[in-house]
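During the first year of the project, the team set up a workflow for recording each protein of interest as an amino acid sequence followed immediately by a discrete structure-token representation. This format lets reviewers and collaborators read both layers of information side by side without switching files. As required by the reporting guidelines, we include two representative entries from the current panel. The first entry is reproduced here exactly as it appears in our internal archive.
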Amino acid sequence: MESSLTWTDFYKKYFDAEKCLAKYLSPQSDFVNDSVVQPIARVSNFFASGSLKGDILIVYGGVTHLHLLLSACDHFKEIILMDVLDTNLQYVKKWKNNHPLSFNWKDSFKILQESEEREQWTEKEEMLKQSITIIEKVDLDENSQEVLKIFPQADCLFSAHHLTKLCKDHASFISSVNNMSTLLKVGGHLIISVFINCTYWYIDTLKFPILFIDEDFVRKVLRDEGFVIKEAMMNRRTNQTTFSVMDYESILFVLAQKTKNV
């Protein structure tokens, strides 16, 4: 994927993982139901299906969405995180090493469970830290497939919101799906979440672009790239008062299985 077709350089220069987490994933956030509560429930249901298991799970971009992986460490022996943004990788390393200034997920989890069950979430967070064995920077460009081939193929591949944030157009989105498919075994599963009908989001006063796509486009791309969709669930936006901050209509969660190499 050519760098001219992505917003990667813009995100590299201006994106701040800690500010993003505070704005969209903290318990004080106006978006906490849409960004924490509903997504955790949706992805946990995917993992609870019984079909998602194996040795390796690879997270491809968007590695700040660690809350969506809490159920994964029960099903996979090893988790590999890869991202193009240094700020995301620095955040994950601070969190994994229990840095005092890392984002406190425990506060966000309080809205999910009663006190005794919150302890289980804390235990899962520690299990997740132990499951993560590799944290790697991977630049997405025209040579991505060759770079990605050095990694072991995964039994499951996970990508949360990453593609719509970095891809400028449909061609670069398709190229990214093709690139990340290199990481997945035939027969393996893909979990992907994308914003639907969205064009921008703000962190503080800085406006970041998002690729406008719809559900039909996502389904077609996955089919064309050798995937069979097993489940596709749409989370409609519940916060109707902050469109000036982020204008998405819905979040689409897809569970698909790779049936062939394309």
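The second entry, processed by the same pipeline in the following quarter, appears below.
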Amino acid sequence: MLLKILNCFFWIFFWNTYTDAAKYPVVLWHGMGDTCCFPFSLGSITNLLETELNNTYVKSLEIGGNIVTDYESGFFMHPNKQVEYVCQELAKDKKLSEGYNAIGFSQGGQFLRAVAQRCPQPPMKVLISLGGQHQGVFGLPKCPSLKLHTCEYIRRLLNYAAYEEWAQQVSVQATYWHDPFQEYKYKAHSTFLADINNEVFSNGLYVDNLKKLDKFVMVKFLNDTIVQPLESQWFQFYKAKQDREILPLESSKVYTTLGLVAMEKQNKLVFIETEGDHLQFRKEWFLKHIIPFLREEAD
């Protein structure tokens, strides 16, 4: 009888542990003006994930191997170089070999999408984009940086020289600057976003690899004062030659050329909106709306 009782308790404990655990490790990529490990930002997110997902492995990406380079990379290291670096880091991490889920914060959202499209091994399972700018930005009203002069420099650069070759190389934000009044210049000279959005030429591998995701979750912050237009967080953007009216995703070329239409038919696209400014959310909201995608039952 005692053996049966102990066996019962074992299975109750095992079941609770199993269902609270993450099926896959989690990879995080921070946004502009942040680093992998600030205790008040991604450091706290790492701790929260480890607590809620039964000590699952969480890898918060540190570009360049130290916190200074990691911070500077968000402004000055070309996204193509960052993505290449991250792909190498993920490939050699044995804990990720069976697959992983990913959360991108702000520009980290589109950077991780580039990882999914360019580097299918190890396989990314769920991509969660928190405030990512998947159709780029046209405006930088509030620039998150520890140094005010950095923001002023970036604003001037984007306003006057975003599509110059040298600007594309020295400013991360220039590589996803999307000017609706100069669509031809954007497509011809954007060295990152236009490519991963299949606007330069149609890359079938990008489509195939993105469609391998189980879920692509996009979170839009309704009171965002940093991302313009905020609809870019849902893969939408202005209609050409103006900056007021938003073109529905279903009417945009990228909906087809990147395979998003097929993903939507397979219920792989998830659109979530929340009140608050850029990346401003409460723990309770995160637990309710994000954690379930990282757990076993999310499938």
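For the second entry, the following points were noted during internal review. The beta strands are 26-29, 58-60, 100-105, 124-130, 215-221, 237-238, 246-247, 269-274. The longest helix spans residues 2-20. Both points are flagged for discussion at the upcoming steering committee meeting.
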